[in-house]
Amino acid sequence: MKRNLILGGLLSALFVLAALISFAWTPYDHTALDIPNKLKTPYANHLLGTDHFGRDLLSMIMVGARTSIAVALVAVGIGMGLGVPLGLWAAARSGSLVDEVIMRGNDLVFAFPSLVIAILITAIFGAGAVNAIIAIGIFNIPVFARITRGAALSLWQREFILAARVAGKNAARISVEHILPNVTNLLIVQGTIQFSLGILAEAGLSYVGLGAQPPTPSWGRMLADAQTLVSIAPHMALVPGFAIILTVLGLNLMGDGLRDYLDPRLRVART
Amino acid sequence: MLRYTLKRLFSLILSLAVASVVIFAVIEIAPGDPASFMLGMNAQPETLAALRSELGLDVSKVERYFAWTSGMLTGDFGTSYTYRTPVIDMIRDRLWVSLPLALYALVISTLVAFPAGIYAASRRGQAGDIGIMGATQLGVAVPNFWFAMMLVLIFAINLRWFAAGGFIGWDAGFWKGLHALTLPAIALALPQAAILARVMRSSLLDVLGEDFMRTARAKGLSSRQALWRHGLRNALIPVLTIIGLQFSFLLAGSIIIEQVFYLPGLGRLVFQSISARDLIVVESVVMLLVFSVILVNFLVDLAYAAVDPRLRSRT
């Protein structure tokens, strides 16, 4: 399954690269209006065509990639930063009140679909990229807490942990020095998957107007703009749509490939 | 079984209580007083006070919380700040769109995913399996609202088989209503069907490796008979979990899909209420969504325990 890893890696790298290059150069200014050239289908001057204001879609996609990547990346960071320590803590105190509270808390967050969290947050603090990040990030916390706890629980039964305890290390130190390094692979794989889900979620939130606000370009908002024009300018919907699909597909393939590459044993265990 | 049910019921009630506190607290943080928002800048203090007491805003937060929750238990969700109509009526109207839509999508997703997953598992490693697995990778990666736009473009604008948006209402007849919900339901079902097909396949593959499957073959069943009689039934447990979980995604996902098709469901109600700062409606819809998720998970748990007694001892 090396094929998955390579194909996924290439696709993901393409979009990261597009985002990075957009800081230094884009074919056109992504905010520049050019009404005479509006709604052009792809041609030599505008490789991906233009939108209803004559803005260059390729430039918008490149700059939009920044928003998508930034939102998804920070959201994964929030999820890992809070979820992993919680999971380690719950596993170290397995069966105790702490464990119970953390796991029930997890269930509770799971009961709020991420979109509903986003709606709550925007209802109160207003729409924006930061609030989208928080909404997606909160939902990532239980994902990482659960997966960390699950993996850590079985590690705690192993001899090398017993050896560490005999050597006098306390639970916190064992968690950091011995458990954490052994769950890293799992976290990387899950991180890739959550990253791709984050990109989808960000697109959905911006599509309904709860994500990044103008003039920050985002793929979801490009789709919202395209909606009323889909019958006369389908390329306006196709371009951002394919950008999202290819990125998410790339990340998912990379996640699958990484899992198989890092730990072939997991191939059986996962569903 | 009774003990297990009671235990799950207790945890259900606890979850609902915590969820209601969280939602109430979050909405309370919201800046701005609904009464002054409704009356505008030039409101007289007396009018303001009168409205505040009419809306029940003049009592303490704790009292308001208990008024809200005990009201919900008796079916009284309060009065909308903007429309001055009972929230429960507004929700009931919208639920008649969102709930059928989610259920319709669930049916489609199951109808697609079961055959696809079973077929892929029975042709493991062959072209059919690889094709279906590739399709599910794609299905997971496609944003459903984008897929919805493409469906509109093809089936509504070009082929004119369906309306591009809006909902004609159930009064026009069951089939007409169902027809209007078909494109949204397909769009909503796509990613869920892809996930479900993958789960079905891998769960079935796990079961196919079990000893009792070999026994079934040894006693003379063909591999197809063994799969249908023994394999499928045992593979269904993880599949049921996912179906239960998906219900919540479908209900929440319908919020976005409703925007694409201009359907007058819960989603549009929420967005209208947010822009009108009608927070009591937002609060109630969110609580309702969370309640339905927790309830469905509870029912799924009970269904398992009924099917598989081994699960009763584990909680």
Automatic annotation (TrEMBL), chain A:
The chain crosses the membrane at residues 69-91, 112-139, 232-255. It comes from the Bacteria. Keywords: Cell membrane, Membrane, Transmembrane, Transmembrane helix, Transport. Its main location: membrane. It is found in: Cell membrane. InterPro entries: BP-dependent_transpt_permease, MetI-like, MetI-like_sf. It is a multi-pass membrane protein. One of its GO terms (cellular component) is plasma membrane. CDD domains: TM_PBP2. Residues 65-255 form the ABC transmembrane type-1 domain. Belongs to the binding-protein-dependent transport system permease family. This is ABC transporter permease subunit.
Automatic annotation (TrEMBL), chain B:
Keywords: Cell membrane, Membrane, Transmembrane, Transmembrane helix, Transport. One of its GO terms (cellular component) is plasma membrane. Its main location: membrane. It is a multi-pass membrane protein. InterPro entries: BPD_transp_1_N (IPR045621), MetI-like (IPR000515), MetI-like_sf (IPR035906). Gene3D superfamilies: MetI-like (1.10.3720.10). It is found in: Cell membrane. The chain crosses the membrane at residues 101-120, 132-157, 177-197, 235-257, 285-307. One of its GO terms (molecular function) is dipeptide transmembrane transporter activity. CDD domains: TM_PBP2 (cd06261). It comes from the Bacteria. Residues 95-300 form the ABC transmembrane type-1 domain. Belongs to the binding-protein-dependent transport system permease family. This is ABC transporter permease subunit. It comes from Sulfitobacter sediminilitoris. The lineage of its organism: Bacteria, Pseudomonadati, Pseudomonadota, Alphaproteobacteria, Rhodobacterales.
